[in-house]
Amino acid sequence: MNIFCPALPPVTTTVQVGWLPSRTPVVLADLDNGQMPEVTSASRQWFDRASSVSPGGVNSPVRAFRAVGGTPRFVARAEGPWLFDADGNRLLDLVGSWGPMLLGHAHPEVVAAVVDAVERGTSYGMPSPPEVELAEEIVARTPVEQVRLVSSGTEATMSAIRLARAFTGRDLIVKFSGCYHGHVDALLTEAGSGVVTLGIPGTPGVPEHVTADTVVLPYNDRDAVTAAFATYGDRIAALITEAAPGNMGVVPPRQGFNAFLAQTCRAQGAVFISDEVMTGFRVTASGHWGLDGAVEGWQPDLMTFGKVMGGGFPAAAFGGRADIMALLAPSGPVYQAGTLSGNPVATTAGLATLRLADEDTYARLDAIAEQVRSLVAESLTAAGVPHVLQSAGNLFSFFWGADHPVTDFSQAQRQDVARYGAFFRAMLEAGVHLPPSGFEAWFVSAAHDEEALSTLAAALPSAAQAAAAASSTGASS
Ligand code: PMP
I need a surface site. Which of 32, 268, 282, 424 has the fewest CB within 10 A? Predict the structure, then answer.
């Protein structure tokens, strides 16, 4: 198998962060005496400094640990399935930068390609070969005929919606509650993990008239879709959905649901946008579409991608039918642009990642996901923690306290987040970094090896006990 399993270096005895933007290089951890250092003092110092210059001390809300408590770890470096924080702690990573790190951190071939690209200049503002090759790779793997590269998933969905509105000459957008499509104003309504973790229903700063053209429906509900199209049919420009929602926890589409959405849109002249920012190039070589559309014989009109296709750099894309994409400037009148779109370093990283992600890689990711799921589920069951495990390919999450499958956002929100908080903190103390919110998917990489799995297995029993002892009221159960 052509799989990357890094030989892991021994934990360094002294960790110095002179290369970090530290004003005074400090020795952060000394493990020579075999003693564990104060676990989070350096991270805490960084967080204090960050909090005085950035709102909440972070550049994306979930990183602040508000949903789970504790000090966010500041990462000094990462390799394979491991993160090394500013205190010198080694943490098993089950977040993978929220999806991009399909091959694990700092894959040597990706790093080599990036170093080579950087040496030839970091941005040209002119077309360059890697962006063409990345676009070709995306077109070869998915049903899209043409693709436009951007820098974030948010930009991709925002641009796809603009294009759909221009193509149809209609205004309304249909989305599902609990689906997150980036922080696009019109889509920031009932938008899943990030906003629900913070307990805010929508967001101030988005005027009502901006979301007035957004129709929000319960996920997996065919009747609601049929009714919405019956009511608004000829005003609906697009229906956008996560190919398999991963932003309210993982809530897979019911059998045939995406096909039904594609058919409904086709029949009503609306554009069907499948958002594969999270699932794209992760759950199969052609994303979630490889699990349903490719098998059932349907195609979205537009698709959005991000995360894996940037190999850890800011790169994303939207693409689809050539007749729709032809409306984009400069071939058509719909304006869309970006200073760093198709950046040579980001596209090189994405291309190197996709070229390494072959069928063996996906088979390995599925196998690793299965092992992680089983280990966690067994521990929770042994400790008597009620839970429901849900998957979409190698993406998965647990609904805490649930006793039946979760099919939409209202059910997802009923989970007992206090149990997850207790579990998360205990896992972190034992050296395992999980998503800092119960509404997020877990991500494995092809670099998760036996050592990673034993670290996970060793951490689980006491964390499961902590989850068993916690409840939504904070009282022991
Ligand atoms: N769509 C989906 C399905 C996502 O999961 C995300 C990010 N988690 C986005 C869009 C937005 O991507 P970005 O954070 O790169 O703007």
Answer: 32
* Assigned token pair, 323: 């007749």
What residues are paired with 15 via a beta bridge?
29
Listed in sequence order, the residues at least 6 apart from 470 whose beta carbon sits closer than 8 Å to its beta carbon are 418, 419, 421, 422, 423, 476, 477
Please give the angle made by the CA atoms of 102, 88 and 437, to the nearest 5 degrees. 50
Instruction: Classify residue 232 as exposed, middle or buried by CB count within 10 Å of its CB (0-12, 13-18, 19+).
Output: middle
Among 278, 281, 289, 442, the mutation site with the greatest number of ligand 1 atoms within 8 A of its Cβ is 278
The per-residue pLDDT for range 225-262, each reduced to its tens digit, is 999 999 998 999 999 999 999 999 999 999 999 999 99
Q: Catalytic pick from 85, 87, 93, 275?
A: 275
C-beta 437 within 6 A of ligand 1: no
- What's the gap in Å between 477 CA and the centre of ligand 1? 36
Residue 335 is among the residues annotated as catalytic for this protein: no
pLDDT higher than 50, residue 35: no
Rounded-to-integer distance, Cα 406 and Cα 251, Å: 6
Asked whether 275 lines ligand 1 (CB < 6 A), one says yes
Atom 10 of ligand 1: nearest residue by CA position: 181
242 lines ligand 1 (CB under 6 A): yes
For the chain, report the end-to-end CA distance as a whole number of angstroms. 47
Task: Say if residue 475's pLDDT is above 50.
Answer: no
Nearest to 399 by CA among 467, 457, 455, 460: 467
pLDDT band at 430 (very low <50, low <70, confident <90, very high): very high
Q: Is 247 in the pocket of ligand 1 (CB under 6 A)?
A: yes
Which pTM was predicted?
A: 0.91
Q: What angle do CA 51, 97, 178 make, to 5 degrees?
A: 90
Domains, the chain, in order of start with CATH, read 14-102+358-469 (3.90.1150.10), 108-356 (3.40.640.10)
Task: Please write the tens of the pLDDT for every residue from 305-364.
Answer: 999 999 999 999 999 999 999 999 999 999 999 999 999 999 999 999 999 999 999 999
Cβ-contact 66, 198 below 8 angstroms? yes
- Is 154 a pocket residue for ligand 1 (Cβ < 6 Å)? yes
Please tell me the predicted confidence (pLDDT) of residue 11.
Answer: 33
The phi, psi pair for 400, rounded to 5°, reads -85, 125
